[in-house]
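Worked example 2:
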Amino acid sequence: MKLIVRVWRQEGPEDAGQFETHEVNDLEPSMSILELLDKMNDDIVTAGGDPVVFESDCREGICGACGITIDRRAHGPVPRTPACHQRLASFDDGQTITLEPFRSAAYPVIADLMVERGYLTDVLNVGGAPSVAPGTAPDADSDRITHEDSERALDFAACIGCGACVAACPNGSANLYVGAKLAHLSLLPIPASERGRRAREMIAEMDPHFGPCSLHGECAEVCPADIPLLAVSYVNRERLRAAVRQHDD
């Protein structure tokens, strides 16, 4: 199998960047997009060039590091699938495909296909975990939670923080990501004790860097963790609750 790859090359944040075209041969349809990049980089290095910079870690769809834009779609053509699980079988032999970094004002390019997603981490750092003093956590069976609530919390907690939702949104909104964090922690007894503080701090950290929700749902279509679109409603829901009950928690 052969693919013609138009890949974005950018030496650093200040560089204008441009596309570079490579013909990559001896590919298998079962290979992933990252394995395509591995093969292409082998060819580039053998020819004396500099390899394309991209991120990857687990390559199992868990860590969220692999995010790139494939043919103008965050992660690639198969919905709700991370780039590391996008297979070359989705493309025709000899087809030209375009690989770019995630495109968003919140994601400055570090080099080539690698972007800085630190604003997502900043949101998580200010409220993405409960504050429980060591040794004071209650026994697991002392706080009752329904099976329905626990399953809902786990559905929202599945977010891997890849940031594809921001790249897919025309407004660069992070509401699906932030809403998922607010939702899953508000449904559980111990983290719910800081529900108001968490909402105020996470939303205050989010607002300056990300745009408003477009309400179009592009974010859920590319989310590899299949976070439900309902998550975006939790941002305004928790924002309003925290404003009304600002002295309660």
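DSSP finds eight helices and seven strands in the chain. The mean pLDDT is 94.
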